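== Protein entry: sequence and backbone fold ==
=== Local backbone shapes as whole numbers ===
==== Amino acids and backbone structure tokens ====
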Amino acid sequence: MQEMIENLSGLREGSVSGAQAVERALQLLSIVGRAAEKGVALAEVVADSGLNKPTARRLLMALMRSRLIEQDELTRRYYLGGELYVLGMLASRRHGLLEMAGESLKRLSSVSADTSFVSMRRDDYAVCLHREEGTHPVRTHALLTGDQNPLGVGAGSLAMLATLSDGEIEAILCRIESVIAAHYPGYSPEIVRADIARTREVGYALNPGRVIANSWGIGMAILLPDGRLAGALSIAAIDSRMGEQRQKELAALLTQEVERVQGKLKALFGTQKPAVRAERKLQTKGS
């Protein structure tokens, strides 16, 4: 990362400071990351970032020199680089929600025979970290690993949003309103608010087929020991397998597994020195 900052030091244009250059480079890194295995073209980076083509290209070159991204020689598309894998491995022991939830996902899918997921928040979106298939022959494909939806869209996403303060929820809904209107016809800010109220009342989030017809989901948030949001567990099934009685059964399963994951988080945080816990709080703020 220090190498990236040094690479960016010569990219100042007019009033653009070094800090602004780093922020813009990280924005591009996020855009490339969202493309996952498909990669992203320069034109897409320019369109998504709002930067002009020369600036975007220079920032991408700086990221390439730092090995944070790489470019395919044939397609000229950009992908995440090998250095990020190394950094991810180093961070996994500190932020390994997927590792902590792995056994819980297997139990959820084994007992329910349906598909289970673990998700986490990224800004105003929920990102699916992993999908564990069940054995039921009819499966839902509403959410795949790496997919992201605005907070409130989908069961795990809604469960996470419902844990936030009312003020933060309203700010998020304001920012994502146009995205929901354009891409999620089954949703509106009013519907999300009603879903949040229901989630808080019954203790679990329910998606009654609003993203994909006949694909229902039920979710529950995972909290850190200090009450902050860590992520969510959820289960998806076809509508015929998500009746009111089964919702209660699946909610009980989710409660057990959420408590197991939260217990692991408590043990992890409890072994850290106060200074380390304070550092983690700063690093995960807003995640």
Residues 2-83 form a domain with the Arc Repressor Mutant, subunit A fold (CATH 1.10.10.10). The chain has a mean pLDDT of 84. The two ends are 19 Å apart (CA to CA).
